[in-house]
Amino acid sequence: GHLVAVDALERIARLRPEDAQPLVSSGRLLLQLKDAEGAMQVAEEALVRDSSNHEVWQLKGRVELAQGQLAGAIESFSKALEVQPDHAYALNNLGFAYLQANMNEEAVKTLGRAAELLPAVAYVQNNLGVALERTGRMDQARVAYDLATSLSPKYVKAQLNSKRLAKLVIEGEEATEEP
């Protein structure tokens, strides 16, 4: 099914040589199929067509993230946000890339903004929780993890983060009570 869709989107892209959108859709599908190389080719072609389309930059950033190219991903997501500053998913992805690059203060700012725009998306809250925890804001991290878990009760990562944080806090309290 996916490959048929990719094929159809590529045909549409050939028929509309000025339109980047069919390429963006094709690139997203290729990413789902774990074909990062194919998705990057499509993203680069889409950029030639329309470098002012935030979705093109978002796609390129997602491919770079999948390939572990953190500097490129940060640059691409930043360009998506130059074009559309309130693109919540680009903010989340930029924040996630910052986390991967251990740029934790930047991650807190970026993910905090993403969480304001996407208050009901569990993985955004979880990412924010990770950033807050890494910067020592344990109470705020707990709130973010708890919110992620309540938004999506089956979200295992958020449950594990919440439990791990609770255990850290208890061990920390025990440590401070010892003479």
What does this structure look like?
The protein is mostly helical and 179 residues long. The protein contains ten helices and no strands. α4 packs parallel to α6 and α9 packs antiparallel against α10. The longest helix has 22 residues, at 156-177. The radius of gyration is 19 Å and the shape is elongated. Residues 175-179 have low confidence and may be disordered.
State the main characteristics.
single chain; mainly alpha; 179 residues; elongated; disordered C terminus
Q: In which range does the helix fraction lie?
A: over 70%
Mean pLDDT: 89
The proportion of strand residues reads under 5%
Morphology: elongated
Q: Compute the gyration radius: what is it?
A: 19 Å
Distance between the termini: 65 Å
Q: Could you give the order of the helices and strands?
A: HHHHHHHHHH
Specify the number of helices: 10
Show unreliable segments.
175-179
Secondary structure tally: strands? 0
The secondary-structure class comes to: mainly alpha
Specify the biggest β-sheet.
Answer: none
Layout of secondary structure:
Elements: H1 2-15, H2 21-32, H3 36-49, H4 54-66, H5 70-83, H6 88-100, H7 104-117, H8 122-134, H9 138-151, H10 156-177
What is shown here, in short?
By secondary structure, the chain is mostly helical. It has helices spanning 2-15, 21-32, 36-49, 54-66, 70-83, 88-100, 104-117, 122-134, 138-151, 156-177. It is elongated and about 60 Å long.
